[in-house]
Amino acid sequence: PNPLLQSRAHTQTRSNSLPEPAPLPYPNSLPEGLQGAGLGFQPPEGGFGWIVVFAATWCNGSIFGIQNSFGILYVMLQSDLGGGEKDPTLEFKTALVGALAMGMIFFCSPIVSIFTDRIGCRTTAASGAAIAFIGLLSSSFTKSLEVRYFTYGILFGCGSSFAFQPSLVILGHYFKRRLGLANGIVAGGSCLFSMSLPFFLKTIGSTIGLAHTFQVLSAFMFIQILLSLTFRPILPPSCDSHHDRQDKLASRNMKQQCGSQMRKYFNMRVFRRQTYRIWAFGIATAVLGYFVPYVHLIKYVEEEFKENKKEWILLVCLGATSGLGRLVSGRIGDCIPGLKKIFLQVASFMLLGLMCMMIPQCQAFEGVIVVCLFLGLCDGFFITIMAPIAFELVGPMQASQAIGYLLGLMAIPMTAGPPIAGYLHDYFGNYYLAFYLAGVPPIIGGLVLSVVPLIHQRMLKKQQMDSGKDKMLVSETVMNGELLPGCPATEAHV
């Protein structure tokens, strides 16, 4: 039997027995008889969606602006501890504070995907911003590096993860044709934070001290709590879906019910796709050296060029070209069909690895500035098209899970990179080998990603030969014809 016809017949039978639903915010977006279903849904491509874009921009900007400016906080933390002459492993220990925060953003992502799908984007994002606010505020009341592992590294990192990921998912509710543009605006606009925060932190840090600096940064998260309330999913849950699931579960034994509940919360279907597995592995490999320049570049410049007054310019250059790259890549991504978007990530990773290796070769401070301009551009191209590629690989229903698992896989290498670089500095007395080795993983990851479109084309050809073009199109429509992720009470299809 045709699964598409069965799905339509079942939906129409249910709609005849239900009272007429309340009108949707966008009444023309759903055909009659398919209330609460993703089949036939057309996002408004604007309207209230632009307010959501602004809120997502603030979310991304405040979180990653603080993270990418950690090079300034890194130096302030060491000064607050009395310098590095007392502890030969101080570089490693201090770098671990920022690496934990960045790593927790990605480590928590699979769990965030579950919360996003179960309780909605709005509640998840607001709760995460509140936790991040508590983490930054509590970091101002201690001078212990170990306590800041928890307050800044764990609390701020976990809260940022819960606030950040829904900001990616919610855009898929309001944009489809302009999804790349919306992601580009969010990512590009957020880079204004990365450009201004280094100068801001350098200015106020020397004036008010590290403790009060953490308090000022916590205000960004407090504002995000309020802005997260705009993350309103368009599609309401189906009125009868809960009762249907209860009836099905009642007819199963305990083992089947437990298995069903586990599959519901931990949807591993995305890993059945070979292209997704390769893509996720390639990115996880590449990010081992991704965060190293953001943490150690300021300290490297101070040691190598004795420059301690203009080093913040490097982070501004990173933020400026990253914003440019995100705006440009978002628009370019909309013009590139299908999985060919991945080649933008391939190019960005290859260039990023090369630029990391070029840092020790710079003979003057101005040369490091040029390298930072290219590093920021690579960052922009990599970040912006990550969500559109996930939608291309697994469809809109599984996009939240796909993004969550991907960010989770990125957690360990991204957390390990900066401390390893700090350890190499402690052992060899300089950053040369650290930056050389930081450039290797992005190059390897780029080579791995380059095979994903080729494998995808080969799989499509094989599918056409085995089952025919019509059957392939029907199965793809059924896969994407479910509720969008991020709606409260939306269930993963078992």
Mean pLDDT, as a whole number?
76
| Total of helices | 22
H-E string: HHHHHHHHHHHHHHHHHHHHHH
Q: Radius of gyration from the CA trace?
A: 24 Å
- What is the CATH homology-level superfamily? MFS general substrate transporter like domains
Examine the secondary-structure arrangement and name the CATH architecture.
Answer: Up-down Bundle
| Count of individual beta strands | 0
CATH class: Mainly Alpha
Structural class: mainly alpha
What count of structural domains?
Answer: 1
Q: Give the biggest sheet.
A: none
Quaternary structure type: single chain
Question: How would you portray this structure in words?
Answer:
The chain has helices spanning 3-16, 49-68, 70-80, 90-107, 109-119, 121-139, 145-169, 171-174, 179-227, 241-250, 254-265, 274-286, 292-305, 312-335, 342-358, 365-384, 386-394, 399-428, 432-438, 440-449, 452-467, 469-479. With 494 residues, the protein is an all-alpha fold. It has one domain (49-231, 268-479): MFS general substrate transporter like domains (Growth Hormone, Chain: A, Up-down Bundle), CATH 1.20.1250.20. The two termini are 19 Å apart. Belongs to the major facilitator superfamily. Monocarboxylate porter (TC 2.A.1.13) family.
Element layout with pairings:
Elements: H1 3-16, H2 49-68, H3 70-80, H4 90-107, H5 109-119, H6 121-139, H7 145-169, H8 171-174, H9 179-227, H10 241-250, H11 254-265, H12 274-286, H13 292-305, H14 312-335, H15 342-358, H16 365-384, H17 386-394, H18 399-428, H19 432-438, H20 440-449, H21 452-467, H22 469-479
Helix pairs in contact: 2-7, 2-9, 3-4, 3-9, 3-13, 4-7, 4-18, 5-6, 5-7, 5-18, 6-7, 6-9, 7-18, 9-14, 12-18, 12-20, 12-21, 13-18, 14-16, 15-16, 15-19, 15-20, 18-19, 21-22
